[in-house]
Structure formats: C-alpha cells, structure tokens
Amino acid sequence: MMCRVLLLLLVVLVARASLATTQSGDARQLRFRADTRTFKIVQFTDQHYGEGEDVAWGRQQDINSTRVMRSVLHHETPDLVVYTGDQLTGNNIHDNATSYWRELLAPTLAANLSWAFVFGNHDDMPLQPGHPQHGLGSDTSRAQLLAFDNQFPGSLSFDENPALPGVTNFHLNIKHSTGNGSTPLFFFDSGGGTLPEVVHEAQVDWYRSLPSTSPGIAFMHIPLQQYTTAIASGEGCFGMHHDDVTPQARDTGLFRAFVDKSDVQAVFVGHNHGNDWCCSLSGLWLCYGRHT
Ligand SMILES: *[C@@H]1O[C@H](CO)[C@@H](O)[C@H](O)[C@H]1NC(C)=O
Ligand SMILES: *[C@@H]1O[C@H](CO)[C@@H](O)[C@H](O)[C@H]1NC(C)=O
Ligand SMILES: *[C@@H]1O[C@H](CO)[C@@H](O)[C@H](O)[C@H]1NC(C)=O
Ligand SMILES: CC(=O)N[C@H]1CO[C@H](CO)[C@@H](O)[C@@H]1O
Q1: Residues 43-77: tens digit of each pLDDT
Q2: Confidence class for position 27, pLDDT limits 50, 70, 90
Q3: What residue spans define the domains of the chain?
Q4: Which atom of ligand 2 is nearest to the CA of 103?
Q5: Rounded distance from Cα 215 to ligand 2 centre (Å)
Q6: Which CATH class is domain 2-288?
C-alpha cells in the first residue's frame, strides 16, 4: 500500500501552489505550503484518450481514466498535477484531438488545480497509413495541443526555448515557504510521434545552462537509457516491473548532467505501462508512473 501511494504521488518538500491566472510572471509561481512545508504532486500518465474511439472499450477506457483521476484528486488534494505523456492516442483519433484533451483535463479543472505536462510518443502520432482520413489534415500537432491547453488559467506548460527540439521543454520553481530559495521542476520533451524518441543534446545543453538550485524533480515521457541499468543493478528498487524498459534511442548525456548539477533528485517517466518502480542509481531516483 505504501508503495502504491508513493508511486501515485511524489511528495516533495514545499507550500500551497498559487493558482495561476495568466501565463506570465508570478502566475507560474508555485509555493510550498507554509503550514506543512510540503508540496504534493500527483503524476498521471499514459491515459491514451481516444484510443479505440470507434469501439466500445475505447470509450469505456476513457470514462474509467476520468473516474480514476477524479478519485485520486479527491483523496489526495495535491498542489500540482503533472501529466507525463501519451495523454492521447493521436494515431486513433479522427479529427477531434482537442475534445479529448478537454476530457483529459476535466478532473483537474473541476478540482481547480494547476497542471503541467510533457508530450509522449502518441500525442501527435499521425493517423495510421490506410486510415480513411489519413492525410486530410486532421492530425493535431504538439504546438496546437499546447496552445489549446494554454487557454485554461491553470495551465503552466510553455515552450521555454522554441529553438530546441520538442515543445514541452521548460522549468518551474516552487518557492520555499521561508527564505528566498526555490526547488525546481524540469520538464523535457522526449520526442516520439513526429520526432525522434530522444531528449536531444541541445535540450541537455539548455538544462546545463540553467542555474543550479536545491534538488528538485525531472519529468519526461520516455525513460533514459539508465533505467535499463537501474532495474538490473540499481539500489533500493521497489514497485511493479511487468514491462520491458524501452528507453530513448540513445544516451545524450542527460543522466550525466543530472548527476553533475545535483539539482535533480528524482526522474519520473511513463511509457512502459506495466512499470511503477523506483530504483536509485548514482544517487538519483529513476521512477515510473505506470498507466493511470
Ligand atoms: C472500466 O471499469 C470497470 C469497473 O472497474 C471494469 O469492469 C472495466 O473492465 C473497465 N473497462 C475498461 C475498458 O478498462
Ligand atoms: C471524436 O470523434 C469520434 C468520431 O466521430 C467520436 O466517436 C468521439 O465521440 C469524439 N470524441 C470526443 C471526445 O468528442
Ligand atoms: C531575500 O532576498 C532579499 C532581496 O534580495 C534580501 O534582502 C533578503 O535578505 C533575503 N532573505 C533571505 C532570508 O535570504
Ligand atoms: C488553477 C485554477 O483553475 N484556478 C482558478 C480557481 O478558481 C478561481 C476562482 O474561480 C479562479 O480565479 C482561478 O483561476
């Protein structure tokens, strides 16, 4: 039970999230709760809204996902929700990806919470060749999905450096309840769909260029190659391991950068649905969020 709770939530150090009202300046300022000095994050991942939309189990699966998220948010009252990719199965969706995105957000909107997300390999995956509507321009791009998400006041994701590969590369700071310090949350677009499945070297350079602060958490969809090492020879492993680790296409040095900068204490990913384990490797927790 303890493991399940740990895997659904990451309890970092901090204050109550200030509820964002715009996309600029202080609106993105998250804070540790002053009373408990905690900051609770719920991770949701791999909901695959729109998968099998033409068949009954597809719709039922979406309804079930919504029910699970509503229930988790009701019981946990987090300060922030983080979605770690494959929110949609773009390659099954005819022409209404944003309607599914709205469905995805419904529980978080109803709970009046802020959220951040990264893209996975399915969110903008084109319709399969041979699909009756393939090539008709109905596919929804990463940029379009982000723009749709950004219309809501609680949306905190942004394209911090548009020159980089991918769209959801950004960081947020959680202000400490006392003093001037903050704890960072880093978000990486690990590609897939219309992009190679990797956090590119340019994204790693960008991360290295950010000033180091107290250790926070990193989120991406596709696991780093070190996840394979971690489950074989990492320390303190716990949780379910029912899927192979299918990591990024190559090691672009992000793990090394995390270790060198010491401002990330844990990495949380999705992608391999049967895994919800955490293992420690070189002092860094590498964790999965299973399949919400
Ligand atoms: C939806 O949830 C119900 C109740 O838990 C379960 O019986 C059913 O198999 C689920 N359907 C799908 C498609 O996941
Ligand atoms: C998206 O379109 C499909 C096909 O027309 C439909 O079955 C489905 O209900 C729609 N989904 C949403 C969330 O609007
Ligand atoms: C916080 O920053 C302000 C302005 O830079 C400074 O005056 C103050 O001493 C700092 N407080 C702490 C606790 O470091
Ligand atoms: C994150 C979020 O949706 N915040 C909203 C919570 O409710 C207040 C009052 O209705 C809104 O002003 C916030 O934008």
Answers
A1: 999 999 999 888 899 999 999 999 999 999 999 99
A2: low
A3: 2-288
A4: 13
A5: 42
A6: alpha beta
